[in-house]
Amino acid sequence: MACFGPSYAQFNDTTNYYVNFSSTGIINKTNDRSAYVLNNNFKFSLYKKSHSLNTTHGLVYGEQQGKLSNRDLTSALDFNLFQTERFYYWGLASYERSFSLKINHRLQSGFGIGYNIIDRTNAVVVISDGILYEKSDLHNNAETGNNRYETFRNSFRLKFRFLVGKAVTIDGTDFVQHALDNGHDYIVRSNTNISVRLMRWLSFTTSVTYNKLNLTRRENLLINFGLTLERYF
Question: Which Pfam families does this one have (predicted)?
């Protein structure tokens, strides 16, 4: 995602809007083998100097040799309340389904605090931490049995965005979420994008995404290429 809420270098006290859509993927077909993965993401944000609201939605779909490999859906809504130019409060609600990670349903909601380590026009680095309530329904298997459960997690996040010249943007979000009642239950998620601007509103993007759900011993790694459309207004 190419925009971060707590960035005073970009936004003032008027209402600002941001729309971002990216579509990336890989298709591989030979005489006897075929595989493809498509990764689509949409983000809409509303920003003022005192607060922001963001909604994000993502869908990853893939097949290998005619068999389903990915059908992963994520949807999230979050807000930020800025207390100073460096410090802010955040809240989050999200929903996820994932064939590759063996998640039937997962709901998370919670709140926390964040801090802008760097906040400039060409560089943004943000850290945040908080507590999330989670209700999950994972795929059953012989080893773990019925995996419907509720838990609280500590969620630590790192966000960054760097502009290299006027054409290249490097941005990403990394977080780790540990269950407070089970040290073996943790989630790791990482997303990094490198975008080269072709036009004011259009960029060529390389995206690297990694997810791990330790409870089901599942992980995935996606490296995609495609286009990103974005607009501020």
Answer: DUF481 (PF04338)
